[in-house]
Amino acid sequence: MRVLLTIGLAAALAASVAAQGAAEVKVGDMAPDFTLQGTDGKTHRLSEYRGKQAVVVAWFPRAFTRGCTIECKSLAENGDRIKKFDVTYFMASVDALEDNIKFAKATSVTLGEGADAQVVDKQEADFPMLSDPTKQVATAYGVLNPRGTANRWTFYIDKTGRVAAIDKAVRPETSAEDMIAKLGEIKVAMR
Question: CA-CA 20 to 30 A from 64: which of 5, 31, 103, 119?
């Protein structure tokens, strides 16, 4: 019993140290550059947008889970409103690209099992989802949590490549409306 307790404490301490060692990106910092595969079949590099357009990266924990499905649905249903701004936006996770492709294309997702199962209908994502299976970019952004998934945090990056805002209290149900409000607040130009 004592050995198991010691192993458990050592694992918890290692996770805590790893989380503390993660970068903490702050408003005003240059956003960590990334090169990630998207569900649209393209490789997306943050550096390609610098000087041209604002970028939003909405990190999410895991494809096909309740909150992530609701957040994706919110963004897909309001894409026309978000696209009025001069911005490129992504959802990003540490899921495998294949999982994110299936998730982006799913028009309904079953959440739960048995009698508690619930089918949630959603539109197909009309924006790319980025996959970071190596977790290097998630670590650079400081979103990787001890469970090995990303925290649900959204980063707003201005045209110069600096972090203009970070939302660490994302509400999946209103994520699109909140994103639209924040884009206006940080004065992202309209198209």
Answer: 31
User: 12 versus 190: which is more confidently predicted?
Assistant: 190
Asked whether the beta carbons of 157 and 183 are under 8 A apart, the reply is no
User: pLDDT digits over 170-190, tens only?
Assistant: 999 999 999 999 999 999 999
pLDDT tier for residue 13 given thresholds of 50, 70 and 90: very low
Q: What's the CA gap between 136 and 96, in Å, rounded?
A: 13
DSSP state of 30: B
Q: Residue 145 in contact with residue 19, Cβ under 8 Å?
A: yes
Measured CA distances, 169 to 1, 35, 36, 95 (Å): 39, 26, 24, 21
Asked if residues 61 and 151 have their Cβ atoms less than 8 Å apart, the reply is yes
pLDDT above 70 (res 131): yes
SS3 78: coil
Beta strands in the chain (DSSP E): 35-38, 43-45, 54-59, 87-93, 108-111, 118-121, 129-131, 154-157, 163-167
Q: Does residue 2 lie in a domain region?
A: no
Report how far residue 11's alpha carbon sits from residue 62's, in angstroms, rounded to the nearest whole number: 23
Domain total for the chain? 1
